[in-house]
């Protein structure tokens, strides 16, 4: 099988080619074409094929990570969207949870009021009402009103419509009927309904997620259709798959139907890439640490499994998003993070970033503020002549100047200021990792840190040191680990249903029927996608809580027919999860099954082992030695530090820190007290101890 | 060298370590709040987020607070700890490792009785190094009627429910079973309440553990020095902001409803008076002139725990607005430059045992009065008058067990410089969340039959006031309710030519009868299945001359159904024809309107 992964970033489109039969992996980079990213994608694929001597028509699968939906939301450039909802509830998405985003602010913006996904004028109400617990009809659907609404919205020029009724997660028939009426009247519109997008309780969050789907729907639909067509036009016959936030991929048809699945897919591919790298190195418990210019993403992998975010913790541009996704914690910390002295005189770094333009002062593009990259340069940890493979010269004098100004404002030595920038940013990064480990009952010392992204390998060891993590894994191509991650995925579709069933009074018949029904629905979907039944598997889970609580914890539920024993296992798993998450559990409290979930997995071909690099020698890899500054036992010291070229490193031979390892897309730092070696999978493994 | 650099030189530790310690402290408080919210049972805590979490130093100063918590919960925490310290000193009691102390004495730091704190002292060896504290609003605290809101007929603090004055529920790790049994026997819906209390203790213990870990990492001396620097830092920020204000005295008066149907005039239409004196970087808030306390109705506000918090948080939100300043650590340093004068025996400094349980809405009106006073000094940093809130305690019996549900009804903000007011939202010192309709109806014998914005009640201004909501609840089974609210009589104030806002209202409709208007405070009343409440939220005041409002925005308000085309003409001088602004007619209208002034 010949696979290509294409990950579109803000500046570059990264590509990875893999021939699963021949253990061959190759990477490629082209500039992103922001106006129509598919152009860069096609150019990259054709370029990569040519470079590898593979006819484009021989590629079997193209796996694609896109931010088209994400950017539409972040830039508030989506479709003119309408909504059809219950009479009396026109403003659910405007009132939200009646809470301000900021406690202490008069002049704040409220995203859902200042940037409405659906303006009030386009929110039409109709008589309709369902009631719990079963979704019985209290007020029948006023179909004529739906038709009137469709006509009005058409006249108002909307391009997309969200149908959102209360309690539709219990009974979707009214929403589906309304949707059918609208589609018949207004077939050009992108129409979706809340039970199809996310059939879970909490109306503000569900309606908003549905409005987001409609808001991005037309754009995503035409993007994937264009891209698919462009691939055909380039005489390719490869299947196109799109990365989703849940860590799987989806077909273009699925993405066109449920565009929200791609909304937070960018960082998901990174976690997958990190997990793949860690698994190759034989590590089962991993913290993926993907740091670039503006942000750092932290993900947790235990025994090959990702942590999933709970539905209530997922946001985009200030809007809540109820879509299954990998739990990724993002903070504003990266190479471009700006260091400054705030109004009260405190020393801060980030979350604001100088970005790529103007970028750090070192870039010589007019950046006048000190950044993390400048601090690294001043301390000697970056090579001004060999940054991004020498494609960009760094302006060391500019970095010294801006760090010097910072130091004057802080009334400390410039080197102290530079090192302080790194200590603060590393501590912010370590806090982000603590929030996903220590705060969830996981001990980070049991994990290896996979450090990638442009800035990850430069900070990985010092961040690990703050957390007492002993090992850091740096993948072969740290800058394109996300593109690699695309080649490790499966088709992954989620189904969810709200149950509200309480231990002691479980209707096993309903529970089993619901699970069967959800699995049958997913199986139909896979069949439509042309996936063979023997390639399909299901994973069940439940969102459980103690009766009365408002937040659920996810536990795995058994396959097949559930009986009392299977339920007992779920109750035990819930108590254990509660203990791990919160530090204790309540043995005697009744437990409620809030949602049940099924994830359907359709197996896809995957990237193989990359094949051992040729290996060189330390002498051959050595570029130069230079002075680097590190803090040891509380004081700053200058160390003679060896600089190596990564591709010439010997295999399995100790490299002693302090050392700097250069490569095109990243720089790896071994601080004093750390050692490293290049392994046969192409990784560099860093360990605390063994250095000077 | 500028001033900032000089102050940095005064610091006890290097700025890098200070920054790292600050980040670590906040991380701890965030974890406490996160866990409390997720473990707790009552919707008032888990959905409304009416809880607080903070670390306090041995002198009773706040080190950090949880970001999720509501300001009125975290703000008072230092006062709770100081109250317990005073009472322990009087009684000759000492903190010991393993203690957990329960406290809700509104005359010793607590915000009011239902907001119960659990305090875990943190010991390094045998040395007390701080306190980890959680507070939360409990569903019921054993008052005269079900729920802990709307106890508007309590005649003294004894009628407000159980009083816990620095009670060790764990005494050096030994659980005080008798206290827990008393709680279970005297509180309605005690399963939920006790579960929430246990969650509070668990979260407070986590905070203490993490705090000790932090001390383990950096050493006590460094953490203390970092904290002292942090207090100085916050103080400096507040002083700089105060120093930017022109020296002078700024005054304002607002009125609260009190008990509108009460025959006794000393119980209704009560003034809140604020005089703010700015002198250099010091600021004094003098509340002299505020109405005398109401000795037998619980709308008195504890000075420590409600009044101080209302003043501090409002000043902070205006002078160090997060939208402008970014995140600023909330700690006791921020309050150092602020002095509060509150004469004893008034609404803002009542004398024990005057009842205080329903102080929530008056306190928020006080916050609004502080903003109103400061408005002329910083007109671009305030909103016009806010719409106040309302709380209904719904309750009933299922067999021998009570169900209790408290719902906080939103207000709205006034217009702001360059921005319209926020619609249907919690205001000033409150920032809770509503309960999803789909959650309420799935778990309680209630149906929500309407929840949307009001129409045609939008205070005109260059930047219009926020719009209030309308929410309707129907009982599906017999039960009861009590209400505490404000703003039925007095309109939110318009600013700089903006119109005044619109008052709130509350209606009850029994069976098929006609709706009956209720005052803003209603003691416990029976409700029958089929009865409904219609809660009408207030709209905030307008900001600036309506004739200066961008006609495009006026059109938007018409298209969105907030105002009619006729109102656009009347209030804004904007002519709208066939869904568009008639620019010429508008110009003419506005000109003639200006001439007539």
Provide the descriptors you would attach to this structure in a database record:
heterodimer; A: 692 residues; 9-stranded mixed sheet; 6-stranded mixed sheet; 32% helix; globular; B: 597 residues; 3 domains; 7-stranded antiparallel sheet; 5-stranded antiparallel sheet; 15 helices; 23% strand
Report on this model:
The complex is a heterodimer of chains A (692) and B (597). Chain A is α+β, with helices and mostly antiparallel strands. Among the domains of chain A are: 73-223; 491-602, Dna Ligase, domain 1 (2-Layer Sandwich), CATH 3.30.1490. In chain A, strands 13, 14, 15, 18, 21, 22, 29, 32 and 33 form a 9-stranded mixed β-sheet that branches. Chain A has a 6-stranded mixed β-sheet with strand order 3-2-1-4-11-12. By secondary structure, chain B is of the alpha+beta class. Chain B folds into 3 domains: 3-232, no CATH class; 383-544, no CATH class; 551-595, no CATH class. Chain B is 32% helix and 23% strand. In chain B, the strands form 5 sheets. In chain B, strands 2-1-5-4-3-6-7 form a 7-stranded antiparallel β-sheet, with helices on both faces. The longest helix of chain B is centred in the middle third of the chain and has 29 residues, at 190-218. The radius of gyration of chain B is 25 Å and the shape is globular. At the A-B interface, helix 3, helix 8, strand 20, helix 12 and helix 13 of A face helix 1, helix 2, helix 7, helix 8 and helix 9 of B.
């Amino acid at each position: 099988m010949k696979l290509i992964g294409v990950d579109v970033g803000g500046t570059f489109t990264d590509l990875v080619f893999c021939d699963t039969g021949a253990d061959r992996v190759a990477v490629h980079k082209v500039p992103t074409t922001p106006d129509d990213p598919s152009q860069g994608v096609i150019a990259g694929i054709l370029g990569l094929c040519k470079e590898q001597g593979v006819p484009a028509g021989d590629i079997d699968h193209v796996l694609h990570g896109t931010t088209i939906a994400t950017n539409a939301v972040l830039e508030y450039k989506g479709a003119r969207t309408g909504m059809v909802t219950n009479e009396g509830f026109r403003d659910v998405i405007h009132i939200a949870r009646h809470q301000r985003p900021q406690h202490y602010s008069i002049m704040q913006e409220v995203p859902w009021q200042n940037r409405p996904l659906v303006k009030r004028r386009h929110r039409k109400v109709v008589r309709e009402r369902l009631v719990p617990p079963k979704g019985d009809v209290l007020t029948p659907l006023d179909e004529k009103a739906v038709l009137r609404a469709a006509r009005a919205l058409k006249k108002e020029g909307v391009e997309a419509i969200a149908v959102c009724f209360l309690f539709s997660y219990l009974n979707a028939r009214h929403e589906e009927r309304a949707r059918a009426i609208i589609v018949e009247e207004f077939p050009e519109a992108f129409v979706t309904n809340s039970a199809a997008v996310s059939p879970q309780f909490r109306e503000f969050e569900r309606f908003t997620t549905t409005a987001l789907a409609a808001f991005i729907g037309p754009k995503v639909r035409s993007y994937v259709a264009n891209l698919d067509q462009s691939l055909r036009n380039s005489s390719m016959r490869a299947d196109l798959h799109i990365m989703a936030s849940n860590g799987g991929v989806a077909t273009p048809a699925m993405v066109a139907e449920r565009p929200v699945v791609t909304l937070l897919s960018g960082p998901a591919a990174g976690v997958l890439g990190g997990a793949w790298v860690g698994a190759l190195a034989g590590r089962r418990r991993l913290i993926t640490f993907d740091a670039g210019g503006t942000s750092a993403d932290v993900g947790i992998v235990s025994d090959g499994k990702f942590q999933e975010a709970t539905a209530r913790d997922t946001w985009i541009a200030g809007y809540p998003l109820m879509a299954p996704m990998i739990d990724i914690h993002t903070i504003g910390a990266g190479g471009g993070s700006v260091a400054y002295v705030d109004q009260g005189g405190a020393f801060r770094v980030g979350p604001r970033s100088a970005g790529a333009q103007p970028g750090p002062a070192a870039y010589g593009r007019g950046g006048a503020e000190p950044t993390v990259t400048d601090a690294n340069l001043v301390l000697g940890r970056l090579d001004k002549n060999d940054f991004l493979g020498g494609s960009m010269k760094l302006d060391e004098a500019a970095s010294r100047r801006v760090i010097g100004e910072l130091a004057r404002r802080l009334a400390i030595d410039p080197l102290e200021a530079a090192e302080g920038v790194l200590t603060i940013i590393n501590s912010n990064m370590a806090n982000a990792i603590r929030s996903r480990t220590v705060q969830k009952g996981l001990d980070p010392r049991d994990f290896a840190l996979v450090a990638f992204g442009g800035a990850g390998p430069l900070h990985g060891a010092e961040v690990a040191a703050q957390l007492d993590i002993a090992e850091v894994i740096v993948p072969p191509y740290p800058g394109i680990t996300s593109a690699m991650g695309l080649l490790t995925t499966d088709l992954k579709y989620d189904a969810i249903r709200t149950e509200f069933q309480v231990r002691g009074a479980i209707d096993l018949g309903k529970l089993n029927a619901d699970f069967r029904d959800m699995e049958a629905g997913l199986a139909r979907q896979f069949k439509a996608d042309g996936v063979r039944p023997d390639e399909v598997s299901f994973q069940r889970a439940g969102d459980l809580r103690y009766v009365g609580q408002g937040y659920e914890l996810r536990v795995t539920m058994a396959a097949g027919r559930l009986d009392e024993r299977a339920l007992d296992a779920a109750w035990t798993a819930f108590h254990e999860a509660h203990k791990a998450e919160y530090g204790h559990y309540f043995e005697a409290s009744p437990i409620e099954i809030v949602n049940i979930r099924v994830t359907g997995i359709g197996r896809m071909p995957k990237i193989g082992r990359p094949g051992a690099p040729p290996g060189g020698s330390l002498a051959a890899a050595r570029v130069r030695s230079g002075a680097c500054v590190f803090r040891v036992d509380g004081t700053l010291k200058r160390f003679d530090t060896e600089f190596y070229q990564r591709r010439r490193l010997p295999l399995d031979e100790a490299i002693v820190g302090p050392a700097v390892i250069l490569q095109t897309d990243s720089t790896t730092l071994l601080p004093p007290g750390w050692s490293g070696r290049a392994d046969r999978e192409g990784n560099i493994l860093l360990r605390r101890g063994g250095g000077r | 060298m500028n001033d900032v650099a000089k102050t940095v030189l005064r610091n006890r530790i290097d700025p890098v370590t200070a920054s790292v310690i600050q980040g670590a402290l906040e991380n701890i408080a965030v974890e406490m709040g996160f866990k409390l919210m997720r473990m707790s049972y009552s919707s008032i805590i888990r959905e409304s987020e009416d809880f607080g979490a903070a670390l306090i130093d041995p002198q009773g100063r706040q080190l950090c607070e949880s970001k999720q918590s509501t300001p009125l919960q975290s703000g008072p925490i230092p006062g709770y700890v100081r109250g317990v310290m005073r009472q322990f000193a009087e009684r000759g009691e000492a903190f010991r490792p393993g203690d957990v102390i329960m406290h809700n004495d509104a005359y010793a730091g607590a915000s009011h009785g239902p907001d119960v704190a659990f305090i875990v002292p943190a010991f390094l060896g045998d040395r007390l190094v701080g306190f980890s504290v959680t507070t939360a609003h409990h569903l019921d605290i054993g008052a005269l009627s079900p729920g802990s809101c709307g106890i508007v007929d309590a005649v003294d603090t004894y009628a407000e429910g159980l009083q816990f004055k620095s009670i060790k529920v764990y005494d050096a790790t030994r659980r005080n079973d008798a206290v827990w049994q008393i709680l279970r026997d005297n509180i309605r819906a005690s399963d939920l309440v006790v579960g929430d209390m246990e969650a509070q203790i668990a979260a407070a213990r986590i905070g203490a553990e993490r705090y000790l870990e932090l001390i383990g990492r950096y050493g006590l001396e460094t953490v203390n020095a970092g904290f002292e620097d942090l207090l100085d830092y916050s103080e400096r920020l507040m002083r700089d902001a105060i120093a930017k204000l022109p020296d002078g005295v700024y005054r304002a008066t607002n009125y609260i409803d009190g008990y509108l149907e009460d025959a006794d005039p000393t119980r209704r239409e009560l003034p809140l008076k604020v005089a703010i004196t700015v002198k250099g970087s010091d600021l004094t808030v003098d509340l002299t002139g505020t109405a005398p306390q109401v000795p037998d109705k619980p709308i008195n506000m504890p000075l420590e725990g409600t009044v101080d918090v209302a003043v501090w948080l409002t000043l902070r939100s205006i002078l160090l607005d997060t939208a402008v300043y970014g995140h600023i650590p909330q700690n006791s340093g921020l309050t150092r430059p602020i002095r509060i004068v509150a004469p004893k025996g008034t609404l803002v400094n009542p004398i024990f045992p005057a009842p205080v349980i329903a102080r929530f809405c008056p306190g928020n009106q006080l916050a609004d009065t502080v903003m109103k006073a400061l408005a002329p000094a910083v007109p671009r940093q305030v909103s016009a008058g806010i719409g106040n809130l309302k709380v209904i305690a719904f309750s009933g019996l299922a067999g021998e067990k009570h169900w209790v549900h408290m719902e906080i009804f939103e207000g709205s903000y006034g217009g702001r410089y360059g921005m319209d007011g926020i619609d249907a939202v919690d205001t000033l010192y409150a920032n809770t969340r509503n309960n999803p309709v789909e959650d309420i109806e799935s778990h309680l014998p209630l149906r929500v039959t309407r929840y949307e914005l009001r129409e045609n009640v939008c205070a005109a201004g260059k930047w219009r006031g926020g719009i209030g909501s309308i929410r309707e609840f129907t009982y599906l089974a017999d039960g009861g309710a009590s209400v505490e609210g404000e703003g039925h009589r007095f309109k939110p104030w318009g600013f700089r030519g903006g119109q005044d806002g619109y008052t709130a209202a509350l209606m009850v409709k029994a069976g098929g009868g006609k709706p009956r208007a209720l005052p803003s405070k209603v003691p416990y009343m029976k409700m029958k299945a089929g009865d409904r409440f219609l809660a009408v939220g207030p709209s905030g005041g307008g900001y600036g001359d309506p004739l200066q409002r961008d006609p495009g925005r006026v059109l938007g308000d018409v298209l969105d159904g907030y105002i009619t085309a006729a109102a656009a003409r009347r209030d804004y001088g904007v002519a709208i024809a066939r869904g568009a602004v008639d620019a010429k007619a508008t110009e003419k209208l506005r000109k003639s309107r200006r001439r007539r002034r």
